[in-house]
Design brief:
162 residues; alpha/beta; Glutaredoxin; 6-stranded mixed sheet; oxidoreductase activity; Thioredoxin-like_sf; redox-active center
Length: 162
């Protein structure tokens, strides 16, 4: 029994450590495009959000629950792309910690070129967030404009993950 308690404590410590992102990668849109392309043989969920967007914040717990379900799979990756300003980087880091975001979070520091990169990711995207894009082997296969339910997220992943 004592060994099980020790193992449980080690597991919880590791899970908490993994969940805490101490730094955030800052990217331009070209870097994000390349990052997505590098995820070969994976289903990649890319969610664009902001700490000041109420629907974005509302859907994040469901995204984290689903991310947790697939955390051990080598063929799955979730990337949360913050559209907060670079000046708000510390607020984003605090948000990551407070909301226990377990997916990789990047800060897209490219607001001035929104009219360039938004249509590169999705022609039908009008610039509103949240937006979720799904890629498989670097190719986009699904676009969700607006808040996404946990059921919709799970269904899209299950239908496209082998």
């Amino acid at each position: 029994m004592k060994n099980w308690i020790i193992l449980l404590m080690i597991f919880l410590f590791c899970a908490a450590f993994k969940a805490q992102q101490a730094q955030i990668t800052i990217m331009k849109y070209e870097d994000l495009e390349k990052r997505i392309q590098l995820e070969k043989n994976k289903l990649v969920v890319v969610n664009f959000w902001s700490t000041t967007c109420a629907p974005c914040v509302k859907e994040l717990p469901d995204f984290m629950e689903v991310n947790g379900q697939y955390a051990d799979r080598q063929d799955f990756k979730m990337i949360l792309v913050s559209l907060d300003r670079l000046a708000d980087k510390d607020r984003v880091l605090k948000f990551i910690k407070n909301k226990n975001l377990t997916a990789e979070v990047v800060l897209l520091d490219d607001i001035k070129r929104m009219n360039t990169w938004i249509p590169r990711f999705e022609q039908n995207w009008d610039g509103n967030i949240p937006v979720t894009l799904f890629y498989k082997n670097g190719e986009k296969f699904h676009f969700n404009d607006g808040e996404m339910s946990k059921e919709e997220l799970e269904k899209t992943i299950k239908e496209n993950l082998q």
